[in-house]
Every structure is written in structure tokens, then in C-alpha cells.
Amino acid sequence: MRLLVVEDEPVLREQLVQALRDAGHTVEETGDGREAHYLGDAENFDAVVLDLGLPQMDGLSVLRRWRSTGRRMPVLILTARGSWQEKVEGMDAGADDYLAKPFHMQELQARLRALLRRQTGHASSQWQCGEIALDTRSARAAVAGQPLALTSHEFKLLALLMQKKGQVLSRTELSEHLYPLDEDRDSNTIEVFIARLRKKLPEGCIETVRGLGYRLVEPAASGA
Q1: 2-120: what fold?
Q2: Are 44 and 173 a contacting pair, CB within 8 Å?
Q3: What 3 state SS string does 85-110 have?
Q4: Which residues, at least 6 apart from 14, have a Cβ–Cβ distance to it below 8 Å?
Q5: Among 56, 59, 104, which residue's Cα sits nearest to residue 77?
Q6: What pLDDT band is residue 164 in, cutting at 50, 70 and 90?
Q7: CA 113 to mean position of chain CA atoms
Q8: How far apart are CA 169 and CA 216, in angstroms?
């Protein structure tokens, strides 16, 4: 997943970002409400972790502005322990879930996985495409029961293709999910990763759609 973490407390933000990156996600971060609004408005994220007490613009205002302009990415808000008013206001503003501080990092990651499943229509953390199986919880993949040895970039690429199985994804979109904003993005490297994945996956499951990008299909349905 490509995630945005919005938290003004530096130590907690660093812990969140590191844990999510260790779990295989591409993560952008900010501790400023105005920058958060800009990033969420200008970039495409699979989900957002949003604290409510932010400088420049509070989290509820950020969330309301996103929703008023049609931004529909899942948002998990962080609230103060026992503050039921924050929870209600957050849900009414368009949040998809909430988590009270302090929290366990494993619970936050589980809630993000649940939000992604709802967003993509997956019923569990186990994703399947023909003989390809991917477990979003353990960050592992296999073909016909045999584990795949994947680099972090290869896993992220495969996860996105499986998340949006059957949809055509451009090289730019794939690149955005592989590299953070502060890294140089060369969409040409996507061809290299696609070539590597094709060698490890069943023949015909990654289609090239000329001039548009790539899509993952079950081999029996390839050539459509």
C-alpha cells in the first residue's frame, strides 16, 4: 500500500513510518495539517493515518476538505483515549475507522489491512490470482504453494497488481507506489521489475497493454 501518515509528534510519527515501511508499504509523512491537506489532495494514497491535533490546520478540517472535494481514500483517525466526542466527530467528518492513543502498532496495521480489504473487495488477507497467492499480513507470496523469493520492490509491485487485478496500471502509477516522493522516480525501471516478476510468475499472467501499462490476469483469461 501507499500510505500517508499525518502525526505532529515526531517520535510517534517516526515509529509509525518505520513500522509501516518494515511491513512493506511505501509511506509519505507530515506533521502539518496544511501539508497533509495538499498531499492528500494532490497524490493518490491507498489509506491515510490522520491525527486530529495538528498545527496549521486541525485533522477534522483536513478530513472534511478532502471529502468535500471527492477524495475517497480510507482514513484511520488517531484520537485521545476516552474522547468519544473526537471519535463521533471524526466518523461524521468521513473517517473510516479510529484508534485511541496509546495503541499497539500491530492493531494499527491490522486495521489498515481491514480498510484495504473493504476498499478492494477482498474478504481476507489472503489474495489469489490463479496459482498466485499473496498474504498481505505476512508479506509473502507463493505460486502453486511454492514460496516466491521477491525483493521488497518486487513484492510491492505484485501486491499492487493483485490489489487491482484485471485493471490496467500505468508505469507512473506503479512507480508512485514503489518510491516515496523524496526519491527519484524513473518509470522506466518499472519495465525491469515487470521483467523480473514475469520470470517468477506463471506465463501470461502479466499483460502489457500497449501505450497504457500493465495488468494482472489469470493465465486462462490472458490475451483478452
Answers
A1: Rossmann fold (3.40.50)
A2: yes
A3: HHHHHHHHHCCCEEEEECCCHHHHHH
A4: none
A5: 59
A6: confident
A7: 9
A8: 9
- Write out the H or E segment, with its range, that includes residue 18: helix 10-22
The partner residues of 215 in beta bridges, in order of sequence, read 207
Give me the residue spans of the domains in the chain: 2-120, 126-221
Q: Using an 8 Å Cβ cutoff, are 159 and 24 in contact?
A: yes
Compute the chain's Rg from CA coordinates: 18
At 217, which amino acid appears? V
- 3-state SS assignment for residue 70: coil
Pairing label, strands 75-80, 213-216: unpaired
Q: What is the pTM of this model?
A: 0.75
| pLDDT > 70 in the chain, percent | 93
CATH number attached to the domain at 126-221: 1.10.10.10
pLDDT in tens, 85-133: 888 999 999 999 999 999 999 999 999 988 988 876 666 778 889 899 9
Long-range CB contact pairs, 104-108, < 8 A, 24+: 105/15, 105/16, 105/19, 108/16, 108/19, 108/49, 108/76
Residue 223 reports pLDDT greater than 90: no
* DSSP letter, residue 148: P
Q: Are 218 and 196 in contact (CB under 8 A)?
A: no
Question: What are 122's three cell numbers?
Answer: 477482498
